[in-house]
Write a structure and sequence with these properties.
The chain has about 180 residues and is an alpha+beta fold. Helix content is about 60%, strand content about 15%.
Length: about 180
Amino acid sequence: MEIILKDLAEKMDKSVSALKNAFNKIRTGRANPSILDDVKVDYYGNLTPINQTSNISVEDGRSLVISPWDKTLIPEIEKAIHNSDLGLNPSTSSDLIRVTMPALTEETRQNYIKQARAEAENSRVSIRNIRRDANQTAKDQQQSSEISEDDLRRIEDLVQKETDKYISLVDSELKNKESDLLEI
C-alpha cells in the first residue's frame, strides 16, 4: 500500500514540476533568466544551452544581461536568441549582451494566458492518469488476494485525497501565472 502511494506522489510531483518548467517558458513582462533555458548556442560544434556558456542575470525588472565566458561566442549567442521564437532582440555592448523584454500587449497577454491554461489542463490530465494507474494497481492486488477489499477502499480514498491535493496545487500555480501575466 505504501509503495503505491509513494510512487503516486513521485509521479504527481514530476507533473507539477513539468508544469512549473512550462510556465517558466511563458514570457511575462518581467525579465527571468529561465526564459532562455531552451535557447541553444553553437559552442565549438555542439548545441549547448546559453546558461552553460554564460552568466545570465537580471539587470532591472525588464532586461537580462548575458556575459559569455568566451567572448568569441557573442555573435553566436545573439544569433541563437534571434532565431528562437521568443520574440526577443538582443543588443551587444562591448562584451555583454542585453536582452530587453518588450512590453506585453493585451492580445499577447491573453494568448499567454490561454497557453498557461492549456499547460495546466495537460498537467491535470496527467495527474488523473496517474490516479487511474494507481487505482488499477490496487485493484489488481485485491484480485490477486494481496490486499483485502477494505484495504482497496482505503487506498482508493488516499489516492483521491492525493489527487485532489495535486490538482489544487496545479490550480494555484495557474492562478499565480495568470496574475503575473495580467500585471502591468
